[in-house]
Write a structure and sequence with these properties.
The chain is of the alpha+beta class and about 230 residues long. It has one domain (about 5-50, about 65-225): Spore Coat Polysaccharide Biosynthesis Protein SpsA, Chain A, CATH 3.90.550. It has seven helices and 15 strands. It has helices spanning about 10-20, 35-45, 85-90, 90-95, 115-125, 185-195, 215-225; strands at about 5, 5-10, 25-30, 50-55, 60-65, 70-75, 100, 105-110, 125-130, 140-145, 145-150, 160-165, 165-170, 200, 205-210. The protein is globular.
């Protein structure tokens, strides 16, 4: 719920999806679940024209002109100690038996979701993750023994691919999750990789997570500039 431009990063992530035609969301809540619930409970009122009428025996609230998105948001309280895989397992009945897109709550990208889904549908495997190459934070020293030959900035070609979230998972993922103690990134995804059932969709344009205050400052500066790369709406 940390904010960028006055709105939680969760809102920014959902707007990326909503702008590309996704209007049904399941949010797996753990830490500070009550704050997330309160945000959505009050979201429409805070961003709409509202009439409060207490003239009769019962006070009524009328939303006259809503400026909010037309989305359906289900909040599932999955507990504080539940691991990432266990959270998904708890939402199985809500998600159903169709492939679904999953992402974490800390990464923003200008990802083309239609291309991601098309890639997933064409390879026929159970799961697809979005592979990204984050920008390097430190420069390299090229050394010959103890002599510095050159100093160069770190580029994307100097780092490997990492899981950037924005995954497409088939319903076959659920039997691979033992329970609350299962981390999605360990047994389920590692088993799929060993079975040749995990594919990578390479996303080479903007992606950035918000793990540190420095990350947040960078994202805030991009938003304030008016040209935030993830703002696809």
């Amino acid at each position: 719920m940390l904010e960028i431009g006055g709105m939680p990063i969760l809102w920014h992530i959902m707007k990326i999806f909503y702008a590309q035609g996704c209007c049904e969301f399941v949010i797996l809540c753990g830490y500070k679940a009550s704050i997330i619930k309160e945000f959505f409970l009050n979201y429409q009122i805070r961003h709409s024209d509202v009439t409060f009428d207490s003239r009769g025996s019962h006070e009524s609230v009328i939303v006259n002109d809503t400026h909010t998105e037309h989305w359906r948001v289900t909040l599932v309280d999955t507990g504080l100690a539940t691991m990432t895989g266990g959270r998904i397992k708890r939402a199985q009945d809500i998600i159903g038996d169709s492939p679904f897109i999953l992402t974490y709550g800390d990464g923003l990208a200008d990802i083309d979701l239609a291309s991601l889904l098309e890639f997933h549908s064409t390879h026929g495997r159970i799961a697809t993750l979005t592979a990204v190459q984050p920008e390097g934070r430190f420069g390299f020293l090229d050394l010959t023994e103890s002599r510095v030959d050159s100093f160069r900035e770190k580029s994307k070609t100097d780092v490997g691919w990492i899981n950037g979230g924005y995954m497409v998972l088939g319903p076959e993922i659920f039997p691979l999750i033992a329970g609350d103690e299962t981390s999605l990134e360990s047994d389920p995804l590692e088993n799929l990789a060993r079975l040749g059932q995990l594919m990578a969709y390479k996303h080479t344009s903007f992606w950035q997570c918000m793990d540190t205050p420095r990350d947040r400052s960078q994202l805030e500066a991009l938003w304030e500039s008016g040209s935030a790369p993830w703002k696809v709406w």
